[in-house]
Amino acid sequence: MGKSLLEKAYQVIDETKKIGIGHLSTHSIQNGLKKAINIHGEKVIPFSLSDYLMLMHDERIIAGAIASIKENGFNLSISREFLHLDKTDEAEEILAKVFHNPVVLYPKTTLAHVGALPLLIDRKDAVILDHHVHATIQMASDMVRARGTHIEVIRHNNLEQLEQRIIELRKTHKKIWYLADGVYSMYGDVFPAKEIEALLNKYEEFYVYVDDAHGISWAGPNGSGYVLSQIRQHPKMILAVSFGKGFGVGGGAIVCPDDYIKKLLVYLSGPLMFTGPLESTTLGGLIASSKIHLSPEIVVLQDRLKALIDYFYTRCDELGLPLVSKARTPTAYFPMGKPENIYISGKIFFDEGFSVTAGLYPAVPVKNAGLRVQITLYQDESDVEMLLQIMKKVYDLFKKEQNFSIEETLKHFKG
Ligand SMILES: Cc1ncc(COP(=O)(O)O)c(C=O)c1O
């Protein structure tokens, strides 16, 4: 980031802190059968958490974490190369049942990218980044670029451009990697899984690395995620996942297509050799959450959330509310154009008792400011309805006071 961009980002973030819509602190509080969060002494309904199934508060997961810390202490302070808690193997084995393929755990999804990408991608390969791929993949790609691998960016979800680039790059490179997200974390749109699967079958040199952090738990068999709800894991597909969102715990992993790749990552990933392992609490929590994912209960939770998601998108249509993507995921983005509109609308929502996420530069381009709303089991239909009624008032206010045009605002999101 150049100095002026850095200054711009600093100013925008500092403003959100000053007006009380960013950099807030909170703790959970009871809200009938659900949970709310406390911000500055106010009970606020969260539409800003990625804990989609509200598993973070599940007593069994908390008990698993406590039992593990009592048995093992907080942290086994040694590299996995020499010694690891047997709970690590237990967690990877049960997670392999959730994903139907070998799993390697990392303390964070970010560290999974840092560990896996430099090992999987060779200097003779080429990398194609989706324009919207998550910032953590872009960061890890810089490590690959530094070793001399060719990296280029294509327009978001543009399959025609992707295929053209595969055809061109396969003439000069051994493997062509496409790096993308399963569910894009700001706009909630999705990876075109079936079309990518067709390209994997068509071009021998084509490989895919997909980060489905936001697709886990609420989608897919046993909560294995959005991508695996659409296709089976292809032998040339690497899946990065997060357990810090829908799974209600923490940590990240790579789901490997075979045992060779699992061993390669376990033996040689930088973060597993040179930094510490997952804390024992996380391992205990992961095992407990996996048991829930492997039980019929996960379907009940997924169905409850799907009903709420359907209600949300149906009501958005009925109320004429604009969304950047209408893919029925728990993440939705209301475009608002300039950052000042987020200061106004964010404050309105907070005053009405709702927490939403400000979509501001550098998380989105400067002209793509908006509000991100996340549908979770912290809410019910009446909460969703109240939120959407406020959203309607916000857009009516913008139209009245600013000559605000939804069509003009949405133009900045194309391409
Ligand atoms: C798509 C995606 N990948 C990776 C991450 C980072 O995950 P972690 O906090 O486990 O490093 C995030 C975080 O929000 C994300 O949205």
UniProtKB/TrEMBL annotation:
GO terms for biological process: biotin biosynthetic process. It is an enzyme of class 2 (transferase). Keywords: Acyltransferase, Ligase, Pyridoxal phosphate, Transferase. InterPro entries: Aminotransferase_I/II_large (IPR004839), AON_synthase_class-II (IPR050087), PyrdxlP-dep_Trfase (IPR015424), PyrdxlP-dep_Trfase_major (IPR015421), PyrdxlP-dep_Trfase_small (IPR015422). The keyword Acyltransferase applies. Residues 44-376 form the Aminotransferase class I/classII large domain. Its cofactor is pyridoxal 5'-phosphate. One of its GO terms (molecular function) is ligase activity. This is 2-amino-3-ketobutyrate coenzyme A ligase.
